Amino acid sequence: MIVALLSSFLVVALAEMGDKTQLVALSMASRYRRPWTVLLGILIATTINHALASSLGVWTATRMPAAVVQWVLALGFIGFGVWTLVPDSSVELARLPTWGPLATTAVVFFLAEMGDKTQLATVALAAEFHSVLLVTIGTTLGMLASDGLAVFLGDRLADRLPMTWVRRVAAALFLAFGAAAAWRALS
Questions:
Q1: Which strand (E) or helix (H) includes residue 181?
Q2: What is the tens place of the pLDDT at every residue in 90-135?
């Protein structure tokens, strides 16, 4: 139980560093200057998005043979590791809807997270740990930790945190999960 929660938190917290959705969080915080409202919008969007992703992961894992699930997980985690090494480009948010900071942040963040590596990692983590609740909680807290840094510390943190090393640590974590899944598939 703790392993699922902690693994989900760490994988997503590290993978989110420098990710496009973290750039969205920074942009929203800069635009609205209401950090707690922006963070609440991120919480709403991430909880819904990752609950859906976790549900898909558990549903898929219960309908596929265990060996197939392990190989898909192995390849997926290895792919996420490689993907994490490639920095995201800047996000253009010039033409945002004018629904206020909470609704705009929630909608834009939800849409930006669709198909993102942290959402896909959530699907894989849920398939790995067979827990919608624990994976959703862990990944959501991981997103809030990383995006909270962007919302509250933004520009000051970007100059001091070596994103290359953060991406490397996140990639190593994904690769370790991939290797473990491949090992289980071979056993």
A1: helix 163-186
A2: 555 556 567 788 998 898 888 888 878 888 889 999 999 999 999 9
Residue 134 and residue 131: Cα distance in Å, rounded? 6
pLDDT digits (tens, 9 = 90+) for 72-100: 778 877 876 777 677 655 555 556 567 78
| Local structure of 168: helix, strand or coil | helix
Kindly provide the b/e burial profile for residues 42-77, where b requires at least 16 CB atoms within 10 angstroms of the residue's own CB: bbbbbbebbbbbbbbbbebbeeeeeeebbbbbbebb
Q: Which of 171, 182, 184, 18 is nearest to 80 (CA)?
A: 171
Question: Which three-class secondary structure state does DSSP give residue 103?
Answer: helix
